[in-house]
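Hi there,

I know you've been waiting on this one. I reran it after we fixed the sequence typo, so this is the corrected version. Both the input and the resulting structure follow.
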Amino acid sequence: MSELIGYARCSTAGQDLTAQRQVLRDLGVDEPRIYIDHGLTGRNRERPGLQLALAAVREGDTLVVPKLDRLARSVPDARAIADELEQREVRLQLGASVYDPRDPIGRMFFNVLATFAEFEADLLSMRTREGMAVASARGRLKGKPPKLSASQQQHLLKLYDTDDKTVPELADRWCLPQFADAGAKAEGRRLSSFPAIRALHVRPRRERRARRHQKAGLPSCRLNRAPQRRRRSKPSQNGTPAKRMRVTPRHLIR
């Protein structure tokens, strides 16, 4: 016995699928047989709801969509889905009309609808890019505002310098859990959200170690000099070990 399998999709999370669900119910699709994709674009064919709907249809069933642009937003994807359903002997219903791939006029209208769906998506994308460019030129598109103000960032750096706090401790104190986990994994990792936290990570590790030694009264001359590279001594020809060469530190070379 043939069944009706419904599919509905919306591109953004703020949109509602109530109207599409009602259209599918009016066309005879049962509510449990309706598969949806919420907040996914029609240009991406790898959608969980669409994959479930295509897997649910069997030979002789009908896949029902409110409109063709809900199924795909590009001509190649629409043609590929229609050809796949035709090979599996599954009918495709667009609203109240059943697509017949054997009818030349039906194939022409299908290609025209797919072309308009792709054109509408391209036009919307172009308008969005133009609006973002105008807003960016006027200085209105600045991205997400920082969570900490400039004074709070300076105070955070002051606490790090004076109290010798670690990044996870400061992140937990200032309610920044995302930086607490990152700071616990690797000290010195570059982060990209808050300038204050990023400055703590970008600072050289040798500088922080020298500051701690200075507070403890330990000599820090070995920490301030440039790193040295030791050369391996080559064995002599008669088999006796050769003398090691003394390496002069870089800061002493004139």
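Quick highlight: The longest helix spans residues 104-137.

Best,
R. S.
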